[in-house]
Amino acid sequence: MHAVIITNRVKRYVNGFKIMIEPLMELGYEVTWAGDFTEFKEDINAIPCNIYQVNFRSNPFNINNIKAYFQLRRLFNEKQVELVHCNTPIGGVLGRICAKQAKIKRIIYTAHGFHFYEGAPLINKILFKKGEQYLAKITDTLITINNEDYQAAKKFILHSNGRLFLTHGAGIDTDITNKLDLQDVEKKRKEIKVPLMAKVIFSAGELNKNKNNEIIIRAIAKLNNPNIYYVLCGEGKLRDKLEKLAKELGVEDKVIFLGFRTDVLELLQAVDIFAMTSFREGLPRSLMEAMVAGLPCIVSNIRGNRDLIHQEKGGYLSHPKDVNEFKNSIDKLVNDLDLTIQMGEFNKQVVKKFDIKTVKDEMKKIYME
User: Fold this and answer.
1) Does residue 29 contact residue 13 with C-beta atoms inside 8 Å?
2) pLDDT (tens digit, 9 = 90+) per residue, 332-361?
3) Are 108 and 86 in contact (CB under 8 A)?
4) H/E element holding 166?
5) How far apart are CA 290 and CA 252, in angstroms?
6) Domains identified in the chain and CATH numbers
7) Pair 272, 334: CB distance under 8 Å
8) Range 47-68 average pLDDT
9) What is the C-alpha to C-alpha distance for residues 245 and 248, in angstroms, rounded to an integer?
């Protein structure tokens, strides 16, 4: 039996790939992973299955995607494939079309976040929704990872006898903090230039428009509390703009840009509050990592975040454009240590159901359908 996993750009062999590849191999499939491995940063020989280079590009109008289409066609012609599991928007489109043309027995697609989400531009709700409705008709198994997408997908018409599933995302090691060689908080805070007694809000991810980091900068400026710091981990094209905003608001010494880091899990042990203020998410891994670390979370009230954070139990959900809501949430947490501990412990319990072992079992059962 041969199965093909299709993804876009691959940099590391992370949980999101393990939960697809490893269950298939346990079921006796020979697995080929088709994706763009040109920027892979680990030992590629450590990947336990076959790999096949495909020149996917995230921009649907990039000419390389034409080449990617023919590369997939060649792969399906060379091998007797019984199952294809497609991921990412471009991989989901090209993979399903090529699999249909090759008359592959079972076509699976995981939606990591439909583009016609609540609050999306009208064109997304029309164009992308129509596209997903059309592709659903050639999809045998559709997997969603958050409740909003699951409810939307219920209205799709899948290929004959097709099945729809809601899983717990890509999975996370909920026991990871017990395996870390943690530095003490004082040493870590000294390293990132934050006072030991300060209240620290932390965000991780690319500094782009979607992540909406400026809302926290504006919120702490409104609070005007010299004991509150905001630490951002990640790079992106908006870094200069965010640094300029912090300076304009007079909080440049309270907003710290760490750039790219490989010690995010350790940093989470040295901060007080996690913030995720995005306009759009699927099921954010960085938020789950913060929950595993036992942090209270202030997040935007959007899909994915709503699946993870319970209002006033694990943190606060606010409109992504409402500075005052975020300001009030921060103010409550920095002034109530017992509340932060209580919320953090609640999150540690909630996130257990998203453990990678659970997700692997879910995927294995889906493959066995």
Assistant:
1) no
2) 999 999 999 999 999 999 999 999 999 999
3) yes
4) strand 163-166
5) 25
6) 2-172+355-368 (3.40.50.2000), 176-353 (3.40.50.2000)
7) yes
8) 93
9) 5
- Other beta carbons within 10 Å of 319: 14
How far apart are the C-alpha atoms of 327 and 142, rounded to whole Å? 39
What are the residue ranges of helices labelled H in the chain?
15-26, 64-78, 89-101, 122-123, 129-136, 147-153, 185-191, 214-223, 239-248, 264-268, 285-292, 305-308, 323-334, 337-350, 356-368
Rounded Cα–Cα distance for residues 76 and 54 (Å): 13
pLDDT digits (tens, 9 = 90+) for 25-40: 999 999 999 999 999 9
CA distance 271 to 298: 13
The tokens describing 323, both together, are 């500075």
Q: What is the largest CA-CA distance in the chain?
A: 64
Task: Tally the C-alpha atoms within 13 A of residue 137's C-alpha that lie toward its C-beta.
Answer: 5
Using one digit for the tens of pLDDT, what is the confidence trace for 197-220?
Answer: 999 999 999 999 999 999 999 999
Q: Which two tokens stand for residue 348?
A: 């540690």
For residues 189 and 196, the answer to whether their CB atoms sit within 8 Å is: yes
| Cut 0.85: pTM above it | yes
CB atoms within 10 A of CB 325: 19
Gap between the Cα atoms of 343 and 317, Å rounded: 13
